Amino acid sequence: MRSNNIKDLNKRIIIRYIQRNPGVSRSDISKALSISKPTVSTVVDKLLVEGWVSEEESIRGSSSGGRKPFNIYFNQDAYYLVGVDIGGTSVKMAVMNLGGTVINQLSFETQPFVGSQLIPVIADMIKKLVQDSNLDNNQIFGAGIGVPGITDVNKGVVIDAPSIGWKNVPLKSQMEYLLPFPVYLDNDVNVAALGELWKGMGTENNNFLVITLGTGIGCGVIINGQLYRGSSYSAGEIGYMVTDKDSAEKKYEHTFTGYGFLDNHVGGPSISRRMLSNLVGKNGVNEVWSAKKVFQMAMDEDEIALEVINETLSHLAFALVNVISIINPERIVLGGGISKSMNQFLPYLSATIEKHIPIQTELEITSVKDVSLLGAGYLLLKEHESILKD
C-alpha cells in the first residue's frame, strides 16, 4: 500500500512540475525534484500512454555533445472541464481545457426555473453544451459549480441559497445522477476567488479578497494562497454585515427572503428598488431601472440617481473597512455584474477606506474575463481525486 502511495505521489509531483515548467527534459525533472532518473522515466512513460503529456525532440543538442534531449509538455487538451456559475439572474456555463482556455459557453435566465426544476435544466444545458462543443462525455473531466449561497463542500449540499429557493439541497448527488461525470460545488464567490487565484491576482498575491457585487454581496477569502471557507463553510458571507445600526433596527424591505442587511442595501435589485422609490410621483416611475442604468445616470450627474448610488457606495465602503480590519488583505478585487459600473467610483471608496482605517489595501476591479466560470473549472482541478489535484 505504501508503495502505491509513493507512486501516486511521484506521479502527481511530476505532472505538476511539467505543467509549471513546459519543455523540461526527463533529466531536468530528476534534478529539480530529486527523484531518480529511472523513476522519472517510468512515470513519464505512463503519462505519455495516458495522454497527459507529449514529448518532442529538442532543436538543440545536449550540452555534453550527446544525442538531443526530448522536451516534455503538459497536454492541456487531454480532458476538458465544465464550469457553471449559478446566479440569481442567470446561469452561465462554459467548457474549457485543462489550461483554462474557454472553447464554448452558454447562458440562460434563472428565475423562470427557480426551485426543484432548476437542477434538471442545468444538467440538460450542460449536456447540450458538451454536445455543441463536439466532445464526448469521456473527454469531460467533470463539472465545477458555483452556487449563490452557503454550501457544504464535503457533503455536496447547498445549505441555503435564497435567490434560487434552495435549502438543504443535495446538489452534488442529484447532478451526478443526471450527468455521466463527477461534480464538485462551492459558494459562487469562493469560485470567483479561485478564478482570481488561477488566472488573476493569485499570480501576484497570496492574500486577497474577491467581493462580488450582483443580486447579493459576497466575499471570497484567499489566505496564504489557499481558499478559506470557515468552520461551517460560511466565511465571507458579508451580505449579512450591518453597516448602519439605526437602519438595521428599523424595518427595511428585503430583496429575497434570507438576504442580509448589506445585500439589501448594495445588491442590484436594491438599487433598482430605491431608484423607483425615489421616483414616486415623478416621471419614470413605470420604467425598468437596472442597476447599470442607475449607475450610468449617476455618472451623468442625475441628482436622483446620484443619491441612490451614493447611499450604495457608503454602505459598501464601510463594509470594506470592516473586512480589511479583520483580514488585512494585500488587495481587494471587485467582481460581479455591478463591478462593471464601478470604475468611476473607486476613488470614493478608497478615500472612505483611508479615512477610517490606516491599513493600506489596493482596491481594483477584476480584469479576468469569465472569472467565475474559470474558478468553477479550477475548483474541479483542486478537488478532484486525481493526479492533477493541487
Query: Rg, please?
Result: 24 Å
The rough form would be described as: globular
Task: Report low-confidence residues grouped into runs of 5 or more.
Answer: none
> Average pLDDT value?
89
Number of distinct beta strands: 15
Biggest β-sheet description = 5 strands, mixed
Task: Give an overview of the whole structure.
With 390 residues, the protein is α/β, with parallel strands linked by helices. Helices cover 39% and strands 21% of the residues. Strands 5-4-3-6-10 form a five-stranded mixed β-sheet, sandwiched between helices. A five-stranded mixed β-sheet has the order 13-12-11-14-15, covered by helices on one side. It has a three-stranded antiparallel β-sheet with strand order 7-8-9, with helices on one face. The longest helix has 25 residues. It starts with a helix and ends in a 7-residue tail after the last helix.
Helices and strands in order, then pairings?
Elements: H1 2-20, H2 26-33, H3 37-50, E1 53-57, E2 70-74, E3 80-86, E4 90-97, E5 102-109, H4 118-132, E6 140-147, E7 150-152, E8 157-161, E9 166-169, H5 171-178, E10 183-187, H6 188-199, E11 208-213, E12 217-223, E13 226-228, H7 245-249, H8 263-266, H9 268-278, H10 291-299, H11 303-327, E14 331-335, H12 346-356, E15 362-365, H13 371-383
